Task: structure prediction
Amino acid sequence: MEPFDPTTHPHRRYNPLTNTHVLVSPHRTKRPWLGQTEPAEPSNLPQYDPACYLCPGNTRAGGKVNETYTSTIVFENDYAAVLPPPGPVTPPAPHPLLTAEPIQGGCDVVCFHPRHDLSLPTLSLSDVENIVDEWTRVYMRRGTEPGIKYVQIFENKGAMMGCSNPHPHSQVWSLSTVPTLPAKELASLRNYASTTDVRSGVPTGPDGQACLLCEYVHYELSVPEDEGRLVITNEHFVALVPWWAYWPFEIMVLPHKRHISSFVHFTVDEKHAFADIMSRVTKRYDNIFSCSFAYAMGVHQRPLPPRRDDYGMYVQDADDIAHLHVHFEPPLLRSASVRKFLAGFEVMAEPQRDLTAEQAAKRLRNCSEVHYLQA
Result:
């Protein structure tokens, strides 16, 4: 029997964050494609679009008029997925299997910049830092509202990811419950901390406990580049294709020097390094296929910001087990027009990918950090 080769032989990889597996089928990368192709994302947008609901001074779909903003701007989503309290109480369940619970909260839109034609990879580094500051302010404001238990920051970029407007923006949804995926991750982080001994030289979580993601990134930094999954490293953060990646060019951004629970725990240098790596990741994305690269991006951190004591210091609590990280989950697979679909086996059984995480990381490492429109 021939020896196992992860670049050729199918295998399953374990995701310790969600306690799930992904089927990897590297031998299928040569499979011909005669299926659906996507139209290219436009790269010649105007700086200002009078028909855009998010451009400065324009009237939104709900009738409100945007400020003539010059940097970032935040406003409540005119078509929010959840509504503020108080809300009606759900009726008794007609059957134990048919339960429902009320949920309240709020949904905010964060416009990155007044210019319609820019995005994270084409914004200046100072503009990206402004976005991080705005995300932090919304996280702090929404996270201290009564009844809110979780604040999710995310961006949908590109029409194929369901983005309804190309103007650069993200969203922040604040909920009266912790959603399914972050709840799974937090449970895994807590379980790892309570069942695992700390390894020498590895950063630790609160109270010196083992941290799953501190341990993981420490290991990834030890792997030789040509064998590993690292894409970008700066003084405080790494961007890597996780071992358990599902989407073709999936990336996780996370701190590597110390355990950081949320945006509010950043030092000035860490905030700058975070903005730097977010900018560099998205430039490489656009350069893979020389297009505006679609993705879903989400920040996972403490469900809520920490409270302060009488001296203004942040109080450590159980939620500090959270290890801040960012998920980038892009659908493009073979070209600017061929995407990965969630279908068949993946809907009915478990996630599956063809390109290995190591192959994807190598392709991303080989991409320039000079944006293709500026080269």
